[in-house]
Amino acid sequence: MKRFRRQFFIGTVALLVATAAALWAHRRWHHALPDYAYLSGWVLFVALFVLTFFNARKKLSFLPLGKAETWLQIHIYLGFFTVVLFLIHLNFRLPHGGFELTLAWLFTLVSASGVAGLFFSRTLPVRLASRGGEVLFEKIPALRQTLRTAAETLAFDAPTPFIAEFYTQRLAPFFAGPKNGWRHFFESRRPLNALMAELEDLRRFANAAEQEKIEKLAALVRQKDGLDYHRSLQLALKQWLFVHIPLTYGLVVFTLAHLVLVFGFSGGAR
Amino acid sequence: MSEQLPAPDFDAQQYARPNQNWICGHAAEGQACRQGPDARGRCCATAECKPLLETKPGETKGRWRCTRPGGECAAGPLPDGRCCRPIVKCSPVPTLRVWRGRATLAVIAVACASLLLVCGNPPWRNQFFSPGQISRAHSGGAFAALVATNHFQQNCEACHVAGNSGPHGIVQTALRAEPGMLELSKLARARADVPTAIDAACVNCHAGKNLHQPDTAVISCSYCHAEHQGLKIAATTDANCVFCHGDAGKMAGHANTIPVLHHFAGDHPQFRFVAETRRDPDTLKFNHARHLTGTTIPKLPGGRTLDCAFCHQPDAAGAFMKPVAFESHCRVCHSLQFDPATPQLQLPHGSAAFVSAFLRSLPKQYLNLAPPEDPAAANAFVQQKLAGLRAQCGSGEDLEQRVFFSTATFGPETQVGTLGGNTRAVFPGCALCHEVQPGRLGSPSITKPVQTERWLTQAKFTHAKHAATACVQCHAAVTSQDTADILLPPKETCAACHNPRAGITDSCATCHTYHPPSAAPQ
Question: Which of A120, A165, B85, B358 has the smallest CB count inside 10 Å?
Answer without folding.
Answer: A165
